[in-house]
C-alpha cells in the first residue's frame, strides 16, 4: 500500500513539473512574440521616395553663357537687349569680344538661367537671322575686358602725332586725358596707328564719336568708334 502511494505521488510530482516547464516555455514564447510585435509597431516607416533621387538632373537655374556671333562695329548693347527682351538682361550682362585690331568677333552674354538662354535662342531663330548663338563658358566671360561704352577708338593716327595732337583732335569732348594710349596694330595695308581714350560716360563717348569721326589729324582722316 505504501508502495502504491509513493508511486502515485511520484507520478503527480513529475506531471506538475512538466506542466510548470511548459507553462514557462509558453510564457517565454509569448513574451518574445510581444517584444517582436512591439519592435515592429514602433519602427518608423521608411520613406523610399526621399532616398531615391535621379542621378542626373538638368539645372533650371544658375548662370549660363553664350556668344552672339554676327555683330558689327555699329551693333549696340541696346540692340541686343531689345532682341533678348524675354531673357531679362541688363547692359552688365553683355561684353563685346574684340580681336587684336578691335574688330568685334561677337558678344558674350551672361544669362541668369538655362530658361533665359533658351529664350534667347528662340529670339535669334525668330528675329535675329543675321546672328548666331554659340555656347560659351565662364572663362570666356572673365577673359574679356569690359569697355561699357565709355571708350573711343581712334584709327589712322599719323606716325608723327603725339599726345598733344590727340588732345587737340578731341577738343570739346569729355574724356580723361590720362587714359590716352597710343599703339600700332597690323592692318590689311600695313601697320595702323591707333589711340584708345576713356570718356567720362557712355553718353560722352557717343558724343565724342559724332563730333570727331572722320575728322583730320594733320593730313590723316581719323575713324572714331565707340567700344561697347
Automatic annotation (TrEMBL):
One of its GO terms (molecular function) is nucleic acid binding. CDD domains: RRM_hnRNPH_ESRPs_RBM12_like. This is RRM domain-containing protein.
Amino acid at each position: 500500500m505504501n508502495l502504491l502511494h509513493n508511486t502515485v505521488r511520484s507520478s503527480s510530482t513529475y506531471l506538475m513539473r512538466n506542466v510548470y516547464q511548459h507553462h514557462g516555455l509558453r510564457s517565454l514564447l509569448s513574451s518574445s512574440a510581444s517584444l517582436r510585435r512591439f519592435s515592429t509597431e514602433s519602427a518608423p516607416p521608411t520613406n523610399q521616395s526621399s532616398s531615391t533621387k535621379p542621378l542626373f538632373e538638368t539645372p533650371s537655374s544658375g548662370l549660363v553663357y553664350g556668344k552672339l556671333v554676327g555683330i558689327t562695329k555699329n551693333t549696340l548693347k541696346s540692340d541686343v537687349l531689345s532682341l533678348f527682351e524675354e531673357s531679362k538682361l541688363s547692359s552688365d550682362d553683355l561684353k563685346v569680344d574684340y580681336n587684336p585690331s578691335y574688330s568685334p568677333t561677337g558678344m558674350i552674354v551672361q544669362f541668369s538661367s538655362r530658361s533665359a538662354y533658351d529664350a534667347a535662342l528662340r529670339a535669334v531663330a525668330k528675329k535675329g537671322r543675321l546672328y548666331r548663338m554659340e555656347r560659351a563658358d565662364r572663362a570666356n566671360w572673365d577673359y574679356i575686358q569690359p569697355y561699357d561704352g565709355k571708350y573711343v577708338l581712334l584709327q589712322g593716327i599719323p606716325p608723327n602725332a603725339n599726345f598733344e595732337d590727340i588732345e587737340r583732335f578731341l577738343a570739346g569732348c569729355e574724356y580723361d586725358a590720362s587714359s590716352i594710349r597710343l599703339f600700332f596694330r597690323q592692318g590689311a595695308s600695313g601697320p595702323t596707328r591707333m589711340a584708345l581714350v576713356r570718356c567720362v560716360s557712355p553718353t560722352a563717348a557717343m558724343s565724342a564719336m559724332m563730333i570727331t569721326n572722320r575728322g583730320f589729324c594733320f593730313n590723316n582722316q581719323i575713324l572714331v568708334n565707340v567700344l561697347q
